[in-house]
Amino acid sequence: MKTTSFALFALTAVTQVLAAATGTQSDADRALACASPSTAVPLLRGYNGNWRDHFYTADRNEMNNAVSNIGYTAEGTAAYVFPGTTGSDGTTPFYRLWNPTHTDHFYTTSATEVSSAVLQNGYEYEGIAGYIYQNANCGGVPLFRLYSGSSVDHFYTTSASERDNAIRNLGYNDEGVSGYVLPV
C-alpha cells in the first residue's frame, strides 16, 4: 500500500511539473496570477483527543465520517483553500500524509518532505488536501505549522495568538509557514 501510494504521488508530482513546464505563460506571468477567491472552499479542522491528532480536509463528508465514526471533534473552518489548480494561479499542492503508528496527519507543500516522510518516517501519502498560495502576493495569510514531539502531532493555524499559545503552553514547536491561505 505504501509503495503504491508513493508511486501515485510521484506520478502526480511529475505530471504537475510537466504541465507547468509546457504552459504558454512565462514564469513572470505565472507569479502574478492568482486563483479566484470565489473558487475557494473551507479547509475543515478536526481534533481527536485520544490520538492527539489534528485533521484537516476540504471534504465535508470526510470530516463528517471522521466525527461520526473515528472519534474526531469538528473544530470548524481553519482557512479557505482551492480545490484545484491550473498551474498558473499562484497555488501549490498542500499534500496530506498519515502515520498510522503515531496517529499523526502531516501536511506540506514540499514534495521532498513527502518523499522523506514516506520513505523514512512511516507516513502514507493520502493525496492533496487542497491548493494554497506559495506566497502572500495574492492576499493570503500565513498558515503556521507547528509540531509537538511529545504527542507526535502536527498542528496548523492562521492565528498568531493560537500559534503562540500552542508554543508557550502546549509543548509545540514553531515549524514556520506552510504557505498562504484565505482567512476565515
UniProtKB/TrEMBL annotation:
Pfam families: DUF5648
Signal peptide: 1-19
Start and end residues of each DUF5648 domain: 42-182
UniProt keyword terms in alphabetical order: Signal
Highest taxon listed in the record's lineage: Eukaryota
Cited InterPro entries: DUF5648
The name this protein goes by in its record: DUF5648 domain-containing protein
Species lineage: Eukaryota, Fungi, Dikarya, Basidiomycota, Agaricomycotina
